[in-house]
Write a structure and sequence with these properties.
Elements: H1 3-11, H2 15-24, E1 35-40, E2 43-49, E3 54-59, H3 62-65, H4 67-79, E4 83-88, H5 89-94, H6 96-111
Parallel strand pairs: 3-4
Antiparallel strand pairs: 1-2, 2-3
Length: 130
């Protein structure tokens, strides 16, 4: 992935990317550090929060044409420990606050420790009565 290509992607952002970046940059979303147009392997993801291994992708009309490509990209990222959130461009343009709330919710939930296995059931009789 050439630096020139990535720079061009940053310069030629869509309206939705510009609008979301204006709210993600400089740790504006609850202090989370995001980067934009980030090379990961053979892909360039729209936004990434490395601290929590979260990728945010914005999809325009071209993404509906080849869902298998998006699925393969998501599988590759998830295999490397990233969680992928996808939003349509129109969601960002029409409901930016809702998109930001969802991203913040996922980031907050990722910070919680894993709950671990359930405790043993013990000796329960019929119908769940001890």
């Amino acid at each position: 992935m050439s630096k020139t290509f990535v720079r061009r992607l940053r310069r030629d952002q869509t309206d939705a990317e510009q609008k979301l970046w204006a709210r993600l940059r400089n740790r504006q979303l609850d202090g989370w550090k995001f980067r934009r147009q980030v090379p990961l392997g053979r892909f360039v993801v729209d936004f990434a929060c490395y601290d929590e291994k979260l990728v945010v992708e914005l999809d325009g009309g071209q993404h509906g044409e080849n869902p298998d490509d998006d699925a393969a990209r998501t599988a590759w990222l998830e295999a490397r420990g990233f969680r992928v959130l996808r939003f349509w461009n129109h969601e960002v343009l029409e409901n930016l606050e809702g998109v930001l709330e969802r991203i913040a919710e996922v980031l907050e939930n990722q910070k919680l420790p894993h709950p671990g296995p359930l405790p043993p059931r013990g000796n329960l009789g019929e119908r769940g009565k001890p």
